[in-house]
Amino acid sequence: MAAIDDLDSQIVRLFLAEPKIGVLEASRRLGVARATVQTRLDRLAERGVIASWSPTVSPAALGYPVTAFLTLEVVQGDGRTPVADHLASIPEVLEACTITGAGDLWCRVVARSNADLQRVLDAVVTAPGIVRVATVIALQTELAPRVAPLVEASRDA
């Protein structure tokens, strides 16, 4: 997979900063043809560099201000798929990753309150393949998820 060039980087960073800008305005600001921007965007999407055009939704604004990180230990030999399928059925589970080290899966979950987090944890542990759950509650977000610096760093890497 080839790195992105300077124009790709400029296009991606512009759309990250202003997702509703539109191709025509992006081409005007970047000083290139509209077709160039559209072709580049299509190619970046085809390569998987641009994975989604979905809006970023704030769980807190939806009434889920509590974020917690769970480390799950699962029964060995049964596989992670049944547990992952179970986790996918719980709306408050936003992300789950297989990990190395202590534990087998890591999850990011949200809840309406600390008390509601217990309900979410109870839903998580109903999967028969889960042996143990360790929970850490996030107090404050110091650095929100971001990719713009990575886009810049990957340019012609």
Features:
about 160 residues; alpha+beta; four-stranded antiparallel sheet
Total number of beta strands? 4
* Alpha-beta classification: alpha+beta
Helical proportion, percent range = 25-40%
Cross-sheet strand order for the largest sheet: 2-3-1-4
Oligomer: single chain
Query: What would the principal axes of the Cα set say about the shape?
Result: elongated
- The secondary-structure element order is HHHEHEEHEH
Low-confidence stretches: none
Strand content: 15-25%
The value of Rg in angstroms is 20 Å
Total helix count? 6
- Largest sheet, described in full? 4 strands, antiparallel
Cα(first) to Cα(last) distance is 11 Å
On the 0 to 100 scale, the average pLDDT is 93
Textual characterization of the structure:
There is one protein chain. The chain is α+β, with helices and mostly antiparallel strands and 157 residues long. The protein has six helices and four strands. Strands 2-3-1-4 form a four-stranded antiparallel β-sheet. Helix 1 (6-17) packs antiparallel against helix 6 (148-154). The protein starts with 5 loop residues before the first helix and ends with a helix. The model has no long low-confidence stretch (mean pLDDT 93).
Strand and helix layout:
Blueprint: H1 6-17, H2 23-30, H3 34-46, E1 66-74, H4 81-88, E2 93-98, E3 105-111, H5 114-124, E4 130-137, H6 148-154
Antiparallel strand pairs: 1-3, 1-4, 2-3
Helix pairs in contact: 1-6, 2-3
